[in-house]
Amino acid sequence: MIDFIRQNVLSHFGVNAEDTKVSSLGNGHINHTFLVRGQDREFVLQKINTEVFQTPTALVNNAFKVSQHLQAKVITGEYLLKVVAPESTSDDELYVDLNEHGFWRAINYLPFSHSIDVVSCEADAEIAAKAFGHFSSALTDLDAELLEDAIPNFHFLPGRIEALKQAVSNNSHGRAQDCQQWIDFVLSQQSLLQELQDVEAKLPRRICHNDTKINNMLFDKRDMSSLAIIDLDTCMKGYLMYDFGDMVRTFCSPEEEDSTALDKVQVRESIFGAICKGYLSELGDVLLDDERKSLWLGARVMCLMIGVRFLTDHLNGDVYFQIHHQGHNLERAANQFTMYQSLLNQQDTLSAYLK
After folding, report:
1. Gene3D superfamilies under this entry (predicted)?
2. I need a labelling partner for 59 at 20 to 30 A (CA). Which of 231, 269, 317, 341 fits?
3. DSSP secondary-structure letter at 82?
């Protein structure tokens, strides 16, 4: 793919391929991401997965509106992080659509950036949660209705469970029998759907990041302070409890999300407490009482829902998330369901941090 980029993509961004180095960047599940380095310019180039983002123009337009709003707040001193912003093409567009050869966009590269995949200490968890809270707080005065749904019903647990049931019914790759225990486990948790319906009816829709994984907050490698919130692809209107829940899901385990050492996969209480401290320090005065109460539900729903999505993709033949070996999505699903069980086992202790 790198040869294709050099021959067919770089020129659209005003780059001479002969003087430029292109290398893979990051470990995202969905898009293909590259770092482009020339003699006097460097930026991040992405090939958007149009199977996932079926209206990719909505993605780039949303990211542009969010970055513009944040840039304005940087100027007034209301936003203290760096902003990931689009790099225009030679035709002053936000993207290049090469049809069957891909939908491409570029964003600025942030020097001195450093990401982590596993939180090792309370300080890192608090810093990252504070940064995500700062990001959301800065967007509370941007009308959520201005953003399109780049992925409709993205955080919609009833729909995800229905998709799982359909995948089980189809059993297109003959995998259902080997993961029946996890299918049964998910179906035993459907009482969560009524609780979710009751709570969501009380919540305001805000602009959410919708993918608050620890590696979507960049540290400044010079002092390990927060540098930027990245990956604005899923910025859409939604409920902040899901952003909180995704932090819990990805910060709290001592293991990566595809670890098969399930005996080590658990919610670390000290990390959960650090998330609450950091997130609420930025959003405590913004959240309505019902929103604050919803955060514990968000933590449970996100662990279960991401597990359901991994399991569904496994049953469907791994068509959504990139995998590195057969059974990878099933391993991810088991990991997330184990995190969900750990949350339930510690409910009284953990939920007390939010009161």
Report:
1. 3.90.1200.10
2. 317
3. B
Coil, strand or helix at 292 = helix
- What is d(CA 275, CA 109) in angstroms, rounded to the nearest whole number? 27
Alpha-carbon span 222 to 113, nearest angstrom: 9
pLDDT digits (tens, 9 = 90+) for 233-283: 999 999 999 999 999 999 999 999 999 999 999 999 999 999 999 999 999
| Backbone dihedral angles phi then psi of residue 103, each to the nearest 5 degrees | -110, 115
Angstrom CA distances, 35 to 10, 17, 94, stand at: 12, 13, 17
The pLDDT value given to residue 30:
79
Q: Tell me the pTM.
A: 0.93
Q: Tokens standing for 30?
A: 């969905």
User: Cβ distance 19 to 10 under 8 Å?
Assistant: no
Residue in 290, 303, 288, 305 with CA at minimum distance from that of residue 198: 290
User: Which residue ranges form the domains of the chain, and what is each CATH number?
Assistant: 2-109 (3.30.200.20), 122-354 (3.90.1200.10)
Measured CA to CA in angstroms, residue 288 lies from 206, 236, 311, 354 at distances of 12, 19, 34, 13
Q: End-to-end distance of the chain based on CA atoms, in angstroms?
A: 50
Task: Give the Cα separation of 231 and 133 in Å (integer).
Answer: 15
Which residues are bridge partners to 47 per DSSP? Answer: 32, 104
3-state secondary structure of 104: strand
Distances (CA, A) of 70 to 67, 78, 144, 343: 5, 9, 14, 34
- Beta carbons of 272 and 244 less than 8 angstroms apart: no
**What phi and psi values does residue 242 have, to the nearest 5 degrees?**
-75, -35
Phi/psi at 255 (5° precision): -115, 155
Q: Six-digit token pair at 75?
A: 């100027």
Q: Where does residue 112 fall: left (phi above 0), alpha (psi -120 to 50 degrees), or beta otherwise?
A: left
For residue 302, count CB atoms less than 10 angstroms from its CB and return exposed for 0-12, middle for 13-18, buried for 19 or more: buried
Helices (H) and strands (E) in the chain, counts: 11, 11
Q: Is the pLDDT of residue 56 over 90?
A: yes
